[in-house]
Amino acid sequence: xxxxxxxxxxxxxxxxxxxxxxxxxxxxxxxxxxxxxxxxxxxxxxxxxxxxxxxxxxxxxxxxxxxxxxxxxxxxxxxxxxxxxxxxxxxxxxxxxxxxxxxxxxxxxxxxxxxxxxxxxxxxxxxxxxxxxxxxxxxxxxxxxxxxxxxxxxxxxxxxxxxxxxxxxxxxxxxxxxxxxxxxxxxxxxxxxxxxxxxxxxxxxxxxxxxxxxxxxxxxxxxxxxxxxxxxxxxxxxxxxxxxxxxxxxxxxxxxxxxxxxxxxxxxxxxxxx
Length: 274
Prior knowledge:
- This protein has helices at 71-74, 199-203, 243-246, and strands at 7-18, 23-33, 39-43, 48-55, 61-63, 86-87, 93-94, 98-101, 104-107, 116-117, 130-134, 137-144, 155-163, 169-177, 186-187, 207-208, 212-216, 218-219, 222-223, 228-229, 241-242, 258-261.
- It is mainly beta.
- The mean pLDDT is 94.
């Protein structure tokens, strides 16, 4: 049963040419809305968030999610850095595109030089997902077959999106496998909280806090396996920093590393970043 003020609407977001079946497939778009006029739009291509419209402190609404207005942008790999999509079977990089499970070595696709990135040439972000609306939630599901991009075992993955009347966008991801296999899912949304069209000048005014006392150094964005303290480095965001004061000191003029979020024992939900 739908909660008061919350609703889900469905319409079309164009078509996608499915090379595996050589047919054009309709792309479905789902709009989640609450009683505060906040809305989120997700398409079943990559289970991708395309819009997040929220008010600022003055009540002015803007789309704070980076993305495209049509399917054309999402299907051009050279202009789409995984905007808003579910990334898998393994997000981030696998060094030398190989790993070992139970003494057996598997070779996955090399789509990032000698490494494997974000699930390969056609990861979960480039797949058509099944979609099912249950009340005010939308669940997207996809079956990754045994051997896809070199991974062992079939995987049934599901991503459920919901929007609350407290303006919370909730995402729950699950996976069930037929063989031991690495699974590391994420949503790859990009944000500009001033509005997606406000650019660098507004982005530099953002204040950022990351609840992480350690980070993982990398070479060419591939973690070395070290875990180092952020204290005394440009990666120390345990106290709030304004981006314009720190970005020029970061490698490649930006943060693109893994932070080790501080956790509790036993594990509970904790703040990751603000």
